[in-house]
Amino acid sequence: MAVTAIDYCGRVLTVVSQSDVACGSTQTTDVIPFMTIMFGGPLGQMTWKADTWANSLRNHETAVRKLIESISSAGRD
Which has more pLDDT, 6 or 29? Predict the structure, then answer.
């Protein structure tokens, strides 16, 4: 599991990447076993799916970057 938490204006915005527990143990070819999701903030509930842990970590990096860009832009308004 990878977790990044950012304190923004007194709220904690979180990006979590983990194995998709909804997959369970019944692996089929159309199941994507890893998920990255944002909690809180302007991009809350955005999700990315990945077929490998390495790709999931790339998604995590992308999600954190998008979150930082989003809150940085909001601070300029």
Answer: 6
